Amino acid sequence: MSNMQLDTLRRIVQEINASTSLHESLDIMVNQVAEAMHVDVCSIYLLDERNQRYLLMASKGLNPEAVGHVSLHTSEGLVGLVGQREEIVNLDNAPKHERFMYLPETGEEIYNSFLGVPVMYRRKVMGVLVVQNKEPQDFSEAAESFLVTLCAQLSGVIAHAHAVGNIDVFRKPSNLPAYKTFQGVSGSGGIALGRAVILYPPADLAAVPDREADDISEELELLDAALNAVRQEIQALDEKMQDALMAEERALFSVFLRMLDENSLPAEIKAEIRDGNWAQGAVRIVIDNHIALFAQMEDDYLRERVSDLKDLGRRILAFLQEADASHRELTDESILIGEDISTAALVELPVDKIAAIVTTEGAMNSHMVIVARALGIPTVVGVTELPINTLDDVEMIVDAHQGRVFINPPRRLRTRYKEIQKEEEQLAKDLKQYETKDAITPDGVAVKLYVNTGLMIDVVRGVQRGAKGVGLYRSEIPFMLRDRFPGEEEQRAIYRQQLSHFANKPVVMRTLDIGADKDLPYFSIEEENSALGWRGIRFTLDHPEIFSSQIRAMLKASIGLNNLHILLPMITSVSEVEEALYLLDRDWTAVQEEEQVKITKPKIGIMVEVPSVLLQIEEFSELVDFFSVGSNDLTQYLLAVDRNNPRVANVYSHFHPAVLRALSRLVQECHKYDKPVSICGEMAGDPLAAVLLMAMGFNTLSMSSSNILRVRKAICHVPMSDAQEQLERVLKMSNPLMVKSWMEYYFKTHGLGDMVKSATRIVGA
């Protein structure tokens, strides 16, 4: 496309994104396209899947009275042909084509040339965009490219409108949504059956108009009263969660209170009021300004700060409007639904009545998901196509193990999931006996099971469930839960808690691993491909002051305990390890001199996440004491799959033969050079995979506390000789489905059928 076409395309897309409704977006598109391409007609037809018809939704050039009324079956006309073929149809004389269907209501009989382009979203046809001219002629390749690009942009707008239930022209108001399955990303595992409760914000900032203040002094008094009420509300929420969350995990409330400091947001709002705006309008302007600033940064974590800002603004507005900002009525087994749910909105609700959480936005490592995980609430995020506004009180099933959401599930599915719930409850009771047992196979091979931690509740549960140490402490979580970098002493206190709870047991602390989906609210990292960018050791070596502060805090925290191991993340090259070791040695020497105490030098390891490390084990073995596989990242890098993306979620699998073969060879290489190797991540916590990892010879498996007892039971029931036989068999298989199916069959035929995850036992789920 030419620069002029690109500019036109950019302008149209910007106007569409700035529109406030789907109808407005479609009207903008047809008018702008008709003008830009100098065509007589531009029309958009959207697919009504239920009735299998294309409805004319907007048009420039056809009879305006036909819009919203004329439709074609998916097998009819040239529009139907475009949809069936899922490709462009370009004709110079459309009326002569065998699929041409004359619709007198549209007045299109005078148009000869036809160009139809399918609007596709995730391999599904959403609609058809059509341009027409009176003059018989083929449209150019440039015209085709222009419309294809535009349709790719439009598809997201239409999908979002479906997701929030704004396409209602196909549906009678009395109709409930039909049974349907939606795919998202698992944030916190588990299963829930219940009814949807849409979590609406307490007040609508967007609906507040500008209005001149009648009495500026009175508006300032109203604002002060609202601010005080919000401060008290947030302090009450903080106190309420003291028993459930540690202080570091409730840091968001401190962030809110700092935002409400007189020199922060209130000062800006009061300035707006003094300029003549009423209090509600002033709140809207200030919050919107901050949101616009953050939103422009295109940063995942800053987008979550946008959510927090909106939540805070709504709370202030709710008190200004004298609205009730307190609890929604929840019944038992309520499933919270929302576009995005803030941490504060979650914890002010009665947690014991929340069966699950589902959002159309959000990420696996958001504040809300971290807290939900700590509270044991099944959570699925990123369900972009969920029709939120049609779901209030609708029956749902949430399978957070698989990231699946079912609306209006049939009786057969409800019955099966209820059975699985009972099975999981019974399994949980049965697993209690394994809290005091060691993970030893029937033929006498011991396997060390460690716990992954980040929040203190992970530590408590890990101790309860008999973890032999901490295989991965995610040191970035305290950083994520603050609005600034924690100081050295602050870090020391946090690390000391972790090390003390596992005194006389190894605690592997990973240095700060931010980037990708783990950004800090106060340190923006803007990259087109953050998963392959400035993250992990790459970031900390570029900021040695941050790295050294953390290392010094870890060393001081280990004094007298001597159980600290340090793990370096996202290692790619030997030079990175050499530079990190230089800084570590320097800090170790300095801290001993400062503290006047001898500190046992911690063992140093590297994470095997980047595939290049697999080919340099010999060189790395000369520098480090141990290796630890980050199975989540290694799998996604080997398979070139973003595990946070629902579009390719079905491609991501740690049972992929390439992953299994790479891990098996890695263990052999590490042991060849007498280096212990552990593995952490979802794979280690999957009993089916854990048996294979045990057979490969991993020295340690580290996992979420919720999976320790499951894996321990599997190990106690599977002889090492059997595990090695299964490993030899699956390493010869060609696809992940074969591997997983075989391991499920093995478990079911060896008394471990209750260990197979839920969705794999449901035919047609």
From TrEMBL:
One of its GO terms (biological process) is phosphoenolpyruvate-dependent sugar phosphotransferase system. InterPro entries: GAF, GAF-like_dom_sf, PEP-util_enz_mobile_dom, PEP-utilizing_PTS_enzyme, PEP_util_C, PEP_util_CS, Phosphohistidine_dom_sf, PTS_EI-like. It is an enzyme of class 2 (transferase). Its cofactor is Mg(2+). GO terms for molecular function: kinase activity; metal ion binding; phosphoenolpyruvate-protein phosphotransferase activity. Pfam families: GAF (PF01590), PEP-utilisers_N (PF05524), PEP-utilizers (PF00391), PEP-utilizers_C (PF02896). The keyword Cytoplasm applies. Its EC number is 2.7.3.9. Its main location: cytoplasm. It is found in: Cytoplasm. GO terms for cellular component: cytoplasm. Keywords: Coiled coil, Cytoplasm, Kinase, Magnesium, Metal-binding, Phosphotransferase system, Sugar transport, Transferase, Transport. Gene3D superfamilies: 3.30.450.40, Phosphoenolpyruvate-binding domains, Phosphohistidine domain, PtsI, HPr-binding domain. Residues 21-168 form the GAF domain. Belongs to the PEP-utilizing enzyme family. This is phosphoenolpyruvate--protein phosphotransferase.
